[in-house]
Amino acid sequence: MAGHSQFKNIMHRKGRQDAVRAKLFSKLGREITVAAKMGMADPDMNPRLRLAIQAAKAQSMPKENIERAIKKAEGGDTENYEAIRYEGYGPGGAAVIVEALTDNRNRTASAVRSYFTKSGGALGETGSVGFMFDRVGEIVFPTKVGDADKVLEAAIEAGADDVVSDEEGHVVTCAFESLGEVSDALTKALGEPESVKAIWKPQTRTALDEDKAASMLKLMDALEDDDDVQNVFSNFEVSDDVMAKLTV
C-alpha cells in the first residue's frame, strides 16, 4: 500500500492530474483495442477485453471512448501492437517491472533502456526481477463505500485474498485469474471501484534514501510519460520524512 499511496500523492502534488488523465485514457483505449483485436469484440466472450473495459470504467473513461476503441479493432485498421515486459533495477537496487504495448519493439526498448541508464539503474533480462513479485488482481475503493469491516466482509464474500484499509481508501487483492469475478461481486456490494487492474505486487520492499528516492521518482515519471508504456511497478519504499522533503 505504501508505494501506491506515495506515488498517488506525488502525482497529485505535482498538479499533473489532467495531463495524466488524458494519457491514461489513451493507454486504456489502446489496451481495449488490442484486447478486442486479439479475441472477440464481445466482453462476455473475451476475458481480457472484459477486464480492460472494467479498468476503463473504474477510471471514469467515457462510454463513447470505450466504444470507439472497440470499433477501431473491429475496423481492422489499427496498428499491430505487441505486449512486452521489461525488468530491471532502478536507483538503490529497487526492482522495476515495465509493461508496454508497442508497434515498434526497437523504439520502445531503446527508450526504456535510456530511462534506466539516466536514472543510474540498469535494464535486465526478462525474469531478472519478476521472481520478486506476485501477479495478482487489485481493486481500489474510496473510503465513502464504507468502513474497513464492511469492505472486509464484502471482500471475503467475493472471494478476495486480502484487504488493506487506511484514510485514503480500501485496496482489495485477489488471485489474478479471478479478478473479473471478484470485481463484479464487489461492485454489486460496494459500488463502482476507483480502479481495477492486474498488478505485480512486490514480496519485499527496498528502502531508498533521499538521493536515490529522487532519482527513482524521476525514473517512474519518465516511464509513465512514455506513450508505449502501459504500467510500471516497483518495490521501492520511501519514508514519510524523505517524501516530505521531496515534495516541498
TrEMBL record:
Cross-referenced Gene3D superfamilies: 1.10.10.200, 3.30.70.980
Keywords, alphabetical: Cytoplasm, DNA-binding, Transcription, Transcription regulation
Location in or out of the cell: Cytoplasm
Sequence ranges assigned to domain TACO1/YebC-like N-terminal in this UniProt record: 5-75
SUPFAM superfamilies, sorted: YebC-like
GO molecular function: DNA binding
TACO1/YebC-like second and third domain span: 81-236
Entry annotated with the keyword DNA-binding: yes
GO biological process, one term: regulation of DNA-templated transcription
GO cellular component, one term: cytosol
Xref: NCBIfam families: PRK00110.1 (NF001030), PRK12378.1 (NF009044), YebC/PmpR family DNA-binding transcriptional regulator (TIGR01033)
Classification via PANTHER family: TRANSCRIPTIONAL REGULATORY PROTEIN YEBC-RELATED, TRANSLATIONAL ACTIVATOR OF CYTOCHROME C OXIDASE 1
Family membership noted in the UniProt record: Belongs to the TACO1 family.
Protein name: Probable transcriptional regulatory protein GCM10007276_15380
Taxonomic source organism: Agaricicola taiwanensis
